[in-house]
Design goal:
The protein is an all-alpha fold. It is 74% helix and 2% strand. Helix 3 runs antiparallel to helix 16 (412-442) and helix 16 packs across helix 17 (446-471). It comes from Puniceicoccus vermicola.
Length: 606
């Protein structure tokens, strides 16, 4: 090992900067998660913001230069904070409130999400060697962040340009949101009100002769956040959302109304029938998302088992090579004592079990089982996320719900919150391994990153809980509406209802629709697996089509527009798109979501 002193890493300003930036960016993921069920990896945004702040101050003669490894600690802290969304704030927690009426105080909720996330950190430390050192999984998001940080410090002007794009996009997005809220409401663009779907004679007798396109949600809303997310997810997902939106809201929804399975909404052609149509469309949408995700997950599981088999053959050589690596030995930058893991696991197991028992009255044995099952699912989640960059959170959540539904039949609280621990901690683990991959590539010390992650989830728990309670003071009335579709909440709620009450509560005609949708989801997942890799972008995304059944058609249209803009930019300037579109998109997402949180806070205070 080199005797040269290493540059500063875990400095006070690095932790505080990451803590504050994480607290600022966490509400963005809470906001977008409740809107469309997705979150954004904030690592690159956090690195750019801190670079601009501290190196700007340094040029003014204030403070020393912002070092690369300090930035990595900052980015790790902020990213861990923003990943708090995995701990349940946009899925099982609001679903529990809707189903049971249980409400949470700020501190109880903050302690809960911190406990779930802390379990994820400990398991990530336990899996790090296997995933990053022995199996050498790519963890593409971690690699992308490391490359971006290196480019920032190798090409200063490029970093300044990225910061300019990030700030400009965020400013424009926030101004558009603020203008439409505080000054003049920006109108949605829609086709003539006389365009729509005719109703049957029985529906017309109730005073509704036409379901206008606006009734069905076909309009373009002035949301730059959705355009930004569309640019991030790409054309395959964007086109799948648009196709799913047309299928659900223009074809199946009106058909179910005319069949008498859905009560028609108001005869006013300007009013969206979101609530009326969602009660029916939710079920085939959830079925499609669930079966598509589980089928893809099954293919991943098969690959994982095969990987373990191959890994087992070379495990002795791998361990020997690792033991010869000085960086993995005591004093090396990648060394972390196993005592840290065992002590951390004891704390996580105790804290999580006590929290489950005292807050939700979950039996001790089920609480312990929830933590232990996290290891199994975390291994799978980390493997899938390490190979693809996409953690299978949706599928894991449903697997854990089904597991605890079998262990505690009809108990909705156990079904949701024990599954919250297992699925949430496994998801957090897979997210945090990307940060450890970044640190491994840029030369960070593992122990210091682990400490930074703990500070990060503390920031995320405090800020995320505040954002959730400010945005959604009444989940029962506010969620599953046009303004807050909350598709992840809808999915967890639907599964919990079926496990508790059976299929008797499902609306007329939905069981057949669910079976067909599930078969379509399985078929699309199989097709995606079986076609050649260079042709897979032509296969529709089953999960995205299912999502389009749950969110308003206007959101699917905006997401498709963002994907289309990104595609066009890539056609004319592919290198610019590769380097900068993600930065602009991050700004659009952050600007509107932060302004949305501010608006909710102002409304709450007034």
């Amino acid at each position: 090992m080199s005797s040269e002193p290493s540059p500063p890493q875990l400095t006070f300003r690095a932790i505080i900067t990451g803590f504050v930036i994480g607290a600022i960016l966490t509400p963005c993921n809470i906001y977008s998660g409740l809107k469309i069920g997705w979150s954004f990896n904030m690592s690159i945004a956090a690195a750019l913001l801190s670079y601009g702040l501290w190196n700007g101050l340094h040029r003014m003669g204030i403070g020393r230069r912002w070092d690369l490894l300090e930035n990595n600690i900052n980015q790790t802290t902020a990213s861990s904070a923003a990943s708090i969304i995995s701990a349940g704030l946009v899925a099982p927690i609001p679903a529990l409130t809707i189903l049971t009426g249980k409400e949470f105080t700020y501190w109880i909720l903050a302690i809960w999400v911190f406990t779930v996330s802390f379990t994820g950190i400990i398991i990530a430390l336990g899996l790090r060697r296997q995933m990053l050192v022995e199996e050498k999984l790519p963890f593409p998001n971690g690699v992308a962040t490391a490359e971006t940080i290196r480019e920032m410090y190798g090409h200063g002007r490029d970093a300044v340009y990225r910061i300019f794009l990030l700030g400009t996009a965020a400013g424009v997005s926030a101004l558009v949101k603020a203008f439409g809220t505080f000054f003049v409401k920006i109108p949605s663009l829609s086709l003539p009100l006389s365009w729509g779907v005719a109703t049957s004679s029985s529906v017309a007798a109730k005073g509704v002769s036409l379901m206008s396109l606006r009734n069905l949600g076909f309009q373009l809303d002035p949301s730059l956040l959705m355009v930004g997310f569309g640019a991030i997810v790409g054309m395959r997902v964007g086109a799948s959302l648009l196709g799913g939106g047309i299928l659900a809201w223009l074809i199946l929804g009106p058909w179910a109304v005319n069949q008498g399975w859905i009560a028609p909404g108001t005869s006013d052609p300007t009013v969206l029938w979101y609530g009326e149509l969602l009660e029916w469309l939710l079920w085939p949408g959830v079925s499609l998302m669930l079966l598509s995700s589980l089928t893809s997950f099954a293919f991943s599981l098969r690959r994982i088992v095969g990987g373990w088999w191959e890994q087992g053959k070379a495990s002795a050589e791998g361990r020997k090579a690792r033991n010869l690596d000085p960086e993995e030995q005591p004093g090396g930058r990648l060394y972390i004592p196993w005592s840290w893991f065992w002590i951390g696991l004891g704390i996580a197991l105790t804290a999580s079990t006590i929290a489950q028992n005292t807050i939700f009255a979950i039996p001790i044995w089920l609480g312990i089982l929830a933590v232990l099952l996290t290891f199994v699912l975390a291994i799978v989640a980390a493997r899938v996320s390490g190979e693809t960059g996409i953690p299978p959170i949706g599928a894991l959540g449903k697997i854990t719900q089904l597991t605890f539904g079998a262990l505690a039949p009809t108990n909705t609280t156990v079904n949701l919150m024990a599954a919250n621990v297992t699925g949430g901690a496994a998801g957090q683990c897979s997210d945090l391994l990307h940060d450890l991959k970044t640190g491994m590539l840029v030369g960070a010390r593992l122990k210091l990153q682990a400490i930074a992650q703990v500070f990060g989830i503390l920031s995320g728990a405090l800020a995320g809980t505040a954002a959730y309670l400010i945005l959604i003071p009444d989940p029962k009335e506010m969620l599953l509406t046009e303004e807050w579709p909350a598709p992840a909440v809808a999915t967890w709620k639907a599964v919990a209802e079926v496990l508790a009450d059976g299929f008797d509560t499902i609306p007329t005609g939905c069981v057949t629709a669910m079976i067909i949708a599930g078969l379509v989801g399985i078929a699309l997942a199989c097709l995606e697996k079986w076609v050649r890799e260079d042709k897979r972008h032509w296969v529709p995304s089953g999960a995205s089509i299912g999502l389009a059944f749950v969110i308003p058609a206007s959101i699917s249209i905006s997401l498709f527009l963002g994907a289309l803009i990104s595609l066009l930019i890539g056609s004319f300037a592919p290198s610019w798109k590769k380097k900068y579109v993600i930065v602009v998109a991050a700004g659009l997402v952050a600007g509107e979501s932060l302004m949305g949180v501010l608006e909710s806070l102002i409304s709450l205070l007034s």
